[in-house]
């Protein structure tokens, strides 16, 4: 009986460790997040380092972004037109409300140092 209890205790420690590692791996590569609404609410579009997105007219995300999160050491460059065209701005930190860029973003690139 003691042996079964010891095996169960060991298994629970192993399972907790792997669950925590799985959570870390799932979110580790998220460098930039664009949100549909201000204050980081609504639908979220997660971006990995060195990822670019371009929204065509009529796609959900085109001209819908209202807030962003940017991981430390990363930057998000947003553009008013698709295919990284038109005026642009670089964000290097979180912004609850993107000001003049509210509902104006049609493409973006996420970059990270290293």
Q: Would you summarize the structure shown here?
A:
The chain is 24% helix and 37% strand. By secondary structure, the chain is an alpha+beta fold.
Count of helical stretches? 1
Overall CATH architecture of the largest domain: Sandwich
Q: Taking all residues together, what is the mean pLDDT?
A: 82
Rg (C-alpha, Å): 20 Å
The topology string of helices and strands comes to HEEEEEEE
Task: Please report the distance between the alpha carbons of the first and last residues.
Answer: 52 Å
Query: For the largest beta sheet, what order do the strands appear in spatially?
Result: 3-7-5-6
Q: Can you walk me through this structure?
A:
This is Beta/gamma crystallin 'Greek key' domain-containing protein. The protein is α+β, with helices and mostly antiparallel strands. The chain folds into two domains: 1-28; 31-112, Sandwich (Gamma-B Crystallin, domain 1). The chain has one helix and seven strands. The chain has one helix spanning 2-28, and strands at residues 32-37, 41-47, 51-54, 67-70, 74-81, 85-91, 107-112. The chain has a four-stranded antiparallel β-sheet with strand order 3-7-5-6, with no helix packed on it. A three-stranded antiparallel β-sheet has the order 2-1-4, with no helix packed on it. The radius of gyration is 20 Å and the shape is globular. The termini are far apart. The model is unreliable at 4-27 (pLDDT under 50).
Describe the structure using short key phrases.
114 residues, signal, four-stranded antiparallel beta sheet, alpha+beta, G_crystallin-like, three-stranded antiparallel beta sheet, Beta/gamma_crystallin, repeat, Beta/gamma crystallin 'Greek key' domain-containing protein, Gamma-B Crystallin, domain 1, single chain, globular
């Amino acid at each position: 009986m003691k042996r079964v209890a010891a095996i169960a205790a060991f298994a629970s420690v192993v399972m907790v460790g792997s669950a925590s590692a799985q959570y870390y791996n799932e979110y580790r590569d998220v460098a930039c997040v664009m949100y549909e609404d201000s204050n980081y609410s609504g639908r979220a579009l997660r971006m990995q380092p060195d990822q670019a997105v371009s929204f065509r007219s009529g796609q959900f995300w085109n001209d819908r972004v209202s807030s962003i999160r940017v991981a430390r050491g990363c930057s998000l460059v947003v553009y008013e037109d698709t295919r990284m065209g038109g005026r642009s701005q670089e964000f290097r930190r979180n912004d609850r409300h993107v000001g003049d860029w509210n509902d104006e973003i049609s493409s973006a690139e996420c970059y990270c140092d290293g």
